[in-house]
Amino acid sequence: MFEIIGRWFGGQSGPAVLTAIFIAERAGLPMVRAQTAVAVMSRGLEGDRYYLKTGYWDPVEGCQVTLISEHDLERAGRGHSLDFSQGSHRLNLVVNGLKTKRLEGKTFQIGEAIFAYDKPRPPCGYLNQIEGRGMAKALSYNSGVCLQVKQSGAFSVGDEVVIL
Q1: Reduced to 3 states, what is the DSSP secondary structure of residue 152?
Q2: pLDDT in tens, 28-69
Q3: Which of 8-17, 19-28, 76-85, 109-118 has the highest mean pLDDT?
Q4: Which end of the chain has fewer CB atoms within 10 angstroms, the N or the C?
Q5: Which positions ≥6 away from 97 have C-beta within 8 Å?
Q6: Highest-confidence range of 17-26, 96-105, 128-137, by mean pLDDT?
Q7: By residue range, what is the domain housing residue 24?
Q8: Which residues on neighbouring strands pair with residue 67, listed in sequence order?
């Protein structure tokens, strides 16, 4: 049995959906927007820096996949002249229709892939080095979460986020 996250968490007029996918091959390279991606169990997104073990945080505490909500990006952008539309937040997935804090302890599906909440992903000073001063501070309380890939599969922008 499952429910669509947007309805499950209440207050939403419809289902939560994936609105953007971003991947970077190596630490520091610009994020590249994709329409589809493949998540690989226990590894991450094919072609991404953490899947390839070329991420800045990989040796210490890299995430398999990172996720942030449009709600959190809107909050982070208030009072700042930052443009998150091209992935400057440095997170892989952007969703609409849910707050990331509500994913804690949950397993959910996007397309064919199944993910589990792992931990919060606070921003660091390295983010300022890549994207400019003020980015880490703007995202401080709205910085997204780390996910584990529990089942491999393909997914696309527009897919619903479904809690399992």
Answers
A1: coil
A2: 888 999 999 999 999 999 999 989 988 766 556 678 999 988
A3: 109-118
A4: N
A5: 5, 6, 12, 14, 15, 16, 17, 161
A6: 17-26
A7: 3-163
A8: 93, 145
| Closest to 43 in 3D by CA, of 22, 68, 19, 62 | 62
**pTM of the shown model:** 0.83
Taking the CA atoms of residue 11, residue 153, residue 19 and residue 148 in that order, the dihedral angle to the nearest 10 degrees is 70
The domain that contains 150 carries what CATH number?
2.40.33.20
Closest CA to 162 of 115, 119, 105, 121: 115
Q: Which pLDDT band, with edges at 50, 70 and 90, does 115 fall under?
A: very high
HSE toward the beta carbon, residue 123, CA cutoff 13 A: 25
Q: How many domains does the chain have?
A: 1
Q: Which helix (H) or strand (E) holds 136?
A: helix 135-138
